Amino acid sequence: MTRNQVAWIVLGVILALLVGLAFVLTVQQETDRRSNPAPRTPGAPGSLEELSPDVRWDQYQAADTSADMALLYFALVGQEPTEEEYSRIAFADSESYRALAPGFARSDYLQEVLKPRLQERMQQFKGRHFVLSQDVYLADYDPDIQAFPLTASMAMPARARWRLEDSERGTLAFRAIKVQATNQDRFAQVMVKDESTARSLDALDRRERQCTAKIYLYAERVREEPFGPIIQARIVSMQIFGRSSRLIATLG
Known about the structure:
Layout: H1 3-35, H2 48-51, E1 61-62, H3 66-77, H4 83-93, H5 95-99, H6 104-125, E2 129-138, E3 147-151, E4 170-172, E5 175-181, E6 189-191, H7 195-202, E7 210-223, E8 230-241, E9 247-251
Parallel strand pairs: 1-2, 5-8
Antiparallel strand pairs: 2-3, 2-7, 3-6, 4-5, 7-8, 8-9
C-alpha cells in the first residue's frame, strides 16, 4: 500500500468520526430542547393599549370549546397541527365526524370538509383577540370598598375571588390547556358607588346573582408546562349577565 493510499484512508476515518460527532451533538440538542421548552411569545405584539381600540367586539373569536382552545394554541405558537392532532380536534368539534367509522370515509371527510374550516378558524385566532364565558357569582355588597365581590359560585366566601385559570379549557394530546389572566385583580369585583343601584343589586335573589361573565381577552404569550400549556392573556373587558341574559355590569 502506497503512502498516498494510507493518507486517504486516514482522512476518510477522520471525516467519518466528525460526521458521527456532529450527529450525536444534534440529537443531544434536540433532546435538551424537548425536555426544556422555552416560553413561546406569539409574534411581537404591540401593547394592548395600542391594539385594542382598533378591534371591534365582533372580531373577538369565541373560544369556549376544547377544539377552539387547541386551535387558539396552534395559532399563537405559529405551528401547524399534525394529521393526528387535526383528527383529535375534529373528533372533539364535529358530531358528524364522530358518527363516521374509522376508515376512508372519516379520513376523506376530515380532509375535504373539516380541515379547511379548522384552518380558517385557526387563522382568525392569529389576531390574538378571543372571548370566553365563565360562571361567576355576585357576592354580598361590601360597603367598605363600595363593590360586589365576584366569586366562582354561591358556595364560595367573598374573599375567594373567581380565577380564570382555575378551570381546564381544553386538551392537547391529553394535556390540559388553561388560560391565565395577567390582570385578574382588576376584575375581581363590581364597583357600584351609587347607593340606589347598589341597593337594587343587593336585593336580588341569590339565584339571580349566579351570573355568566363574557370575558374579552388579548393573548400575550404561551407558557409551556409539563402538565400542559398555559395561555397568558390580558382581560380587555368583561360583561356580566344575569338570568334571562340581563346585562348587570360591564367592567373595563
